[in-house]
Amino acid sequence: MAKKVSLINMKGGVGKSTLAVNLAWQFTAMPNWSKKVLVIDLDPQFNATQYLVGQAKVKQILDEGRPTVWDIFEQLTRTPDSKGLKALDLANVINNVVTFRDGSRIDLIPSRLELAYSLMNPGQKEGLLAKFVSKIDDQYDLILLDCAPTESFLTMAAYLTSDYILVPVKPEYLSTIGLPLLVRSMAEFHAHHEDHNLELAGIVFNSTTQYVPEEATSKAEVKAEAKKHGWYVFKAEVSYSRSYPKGAREGKPIFRTSYSRWDQAQKFHSFAKEFADRIGL
Ligand SMILES: Nc1ncnc2c1ncn2[C@@H]1O[C@H](COP(=O)(O)OP(=O)(O)OP(=O)(O)O)[C@@H](O)[C@H]1O
Ligand SMILES: [Mg+2]
Fold first, then answer.
1. Mean pLDDT score of the chain, rounded to an integer?
2. Which amino acid residue places its CA nearest to atom 5 of ligand 1?
3. Residue 99: closest CA among 160, 154, 36
4. Which of 83, 150, 260, 277 is most deeply buried (CB count within 10 A of its CB)?
5. Is 68 helix (H, G, I), strand (E, B) or coil?
6. For the whole prediction, is pTM greater than 0.85?
7. Which residue(s) pair with 6 in the sheet?
8. Domain spans of the chain, in order of start
9. How many angstroms from the chain centroid is the CA of residue 172?
10. Contact residues for 50 (Cβ-Cβ < 8 A; gap 6+)
């Protein structure tokens, strides 16, 4: 069964999507990993989808009316057409991004803006994703869920689907803002689902530079908060590099982005290794 990990932080713009996509590439394209990775985009902003398949493919998915994660949540609320309710076409909701010769691959369950409408009418939908994933998770080694920065039934859906949570944090003023919200939301989840084993893989500092004084202060604050809750903080950090946004534009991971520096890719690699160790990948 796949290890299932949600990238969550209630603070926005901390690198959830960037890390999800780069981790997916790391465990597939890099030698010696040979993993099968599924990325599930759980954000109506669908950044991970755009990053992984690009604008043209996104348009194609939408134009062809192909299913997305939205259809997983709305499978029971669709208006029956003349042929009755169509069963969700499982094969079509999963898009192959890249397959390598050794069999490793990245697949994607894309998102779309309409997922925001599901938020207005959450109903009893949070369990549907876990149910769907339970049918396919033996086909993967790792499933990464890229979450939106706000608490909603989608967060619950992510928890219900996951074994672990990975929390990227940008060490800057207000960096601790999402953490109390995360504590509360996980506590609420555990209160309702005592039998579901959901662990924190850890907090990873993203966009670090080492020379901004504010960074050290913020890291100390986050570490103090982490200590309070017994949370693991990754020793490896993902450093600031213009290659990350550039890679998003090019649809490439840090180690394939044009003119990206080798040491930057190496730093990400160290983090990926530590992450793999933490979750037993
Ligand atoms: N290590 C990094 N160095 C430089 N830029 C980065 C780094 N990590 C992420 N970024 C950039 O920061 C911005 C926010 O990153 P990203 O979209 O991954 O965050 P997010 O947490 O998924 O945001 P949201 O909460 O909106 O989903 C993007 O433009 C991304 O390219
Ligand atoms: Mg994102």
1. 92
2. 244
3. 36
4. 260
5. coil
6. yes
7. 145, 165
8. 3-78+88-279
9. 22
10. 58, 248
